[in-house]
Amino acid sequence: MGTSLISDDRLLIDGAWIPAVSGRTFQTQNPATEETLAVIAEADSADADIAVGAAHRALTQGPWATMTGAARGRILYRMAALLRERFEEFVLLESLDGGKPVSATRRQDIPAAIDCLEYYAGWADKLTGRVVPVRSDALTYTTREPAGVVAAIVPWNFPLMNAVWKIAPALACGCTVVLKPAELTPLTALKLGALALEAGLPPGVLNVLPGYGTTVGAALVEHPRVNKISFTGSPAVGKQIMRAAAANGTRIGLELGGKSPNIVFADAEIDAAVRASSSGIFFNAGQVCSAGSRILVEDRIHDEFVARLAARAKSIRVGDPQAAETTMGPIISEKQMNRVVEYIDSGRRDGAEIVAGGSRIGNRGYFLEPTVFAEARNDMRIAREEIFGPVATVIRFRDEDEAIHLANDSPYSLAAAVWSRDIARVPRVASRLRAGTVWGNTYGHTDTRLPWGGYGGESGIGRDLGEAALENYTEQKTVWISLASVAA
Ligand code: NAD
Crossing angle of helices 69-85/159-172, nearest 10°? Predict the structure, then answer.
């Protein structure tokens, strides 16, 4: 693979760029123009087998197996430094492949990836065990060891960031990784692979296999030499992975979907609530697992809130992702756009009222208007199912108990928000919400240092990020050494 902006048609296996065994390729498209961006090698089960073999060898033999935590950390710091050097290249590539505005990839995707690499670089030499005294004639202690070969399978909405959320802690812990990027957005994952080699990561420690979920993805999940599957994606595929992983008893972590309630009480600071609720649902064209897609608004301010949210939705600049002023780009694909349109139709049929948007924009590129439904009920499909598009569903409530009931009446449990000037109400409501993250008087913040994940169900199990992610990529070993025979 060269240094050109667009990757060529090779897979990264065992430190080398090689074609797929089948020789097959697929194309990745620019969703803003519908043009082909690049031709990519298409991995399948044969390549998965070779890559897992390489990752297993790198885990057990060679420099990685004996490298100190400090040395692993230095490689991660070098990856972060190289990413900083190539910042604009990654900003543009992520924007072209996923249709994300450069304003967003510059502010969020790439800085978050750099931060994550640096955070876990710092952890690499701090993975300690404990001495746990049990009896006087034994030395008893625990160590933390690498979990093994990790299959990291990621979606297309934050391609680089989600990949790094898995790779950085896995490498810090001494694991080896086979990364399967989404078929719609393979470009930055391949660039990251090149950057890792340049940073001195030994061969086989990070392998990158673009291709389809049902072929190479499924082969990785079923592979008996994969020790840990770390998946971010849809609930349907997550559950399939859980079933498949059961065959080998493979450890899994699942970051799945959301239908996050964003609760606005009448005593909220309404300007701030409208602004953040708008970006909470329209950021990344609503293609965010934690999008604030169910906006619950107290009766007393409902009409004013809806009018202001609708006005704000209409003012969003939808268009060319590479233009600096654009705040919303296209939907990732024609299929996904049609799915969102289907949901908009279902909302109309179910009797919700469209107060902004509702249509496609133009006929080239997959652009949709930011859409707001009012007068919705929590039992409508637009309130129950994850749309993964720029569609806000506004539902009224009367009082705090009803708000909490509506918020928790969902198969999802990833995130939620509470807006109120009452300082006691925010933590009180937060404690009653079934959600892995609750924001108070803000929406959407994540940070590498804070754990991220759902309370089960359609939102998945386990936590990415923070100290919590170290659990994902380590095994605790108990060591019991008898001192009695030494003394005898
Ligand atoms: P998806 O489940 O279709 O695909 C995700 C990844 O899984 C892709 O790489 C895909 O190729 C692969 N895959 C598909 N079928 C597979 C199989 N049978 N075996 C193994 N791998 C398979 O999801 P998507 O449409 O790419 O992403 C959108 C979903 O991701 C949404 O539900 C969203 O909420 C979720 N998501 C969650 C988080 C989070 O942190 N909780 C973050 C981002 C996205």
Answer: 160
Can you give the pLDDT at residue 5?
52
Q: Model pTM greater than 0.85?
A: yes
Residue 221 beta carbon below 6 angstroms from any ligand 1 atom: yes
Chain centroid to CA 455: 16
pLDDT digits (tens, 9 = 90+) for 198-231: 999 999 999 999 999 999 999 999 999 999 999 9
- Ligand 1 centre from 138 Cα, in Å? 48
Active site residue ranges: 255, 289
CATH number for the region 6-256+454-477 comes to 3.40.605.10
Helix (H) or strand (E) holding 294: strand 294-298
With a 6 Å cutoff on the Cβ, whether 29 touches ligand 1 is no
- Tell me the pLDDT band of 31, cut-offs 50, 70 and 90: very high
* Nearby residues of 172 by Cβ (< 8 Å), 6 or more positions away: 69, 72, 73, 76, 120, 121, 123, 124, 127, 470, 473
Q: What CATH homologous superfamily does 261-440 map to?
A: Aldehyde Dehydrogenase; Chain A, domain 2 (3.40.309.10)
Q: What is the DSSP letter of 339?
A: H
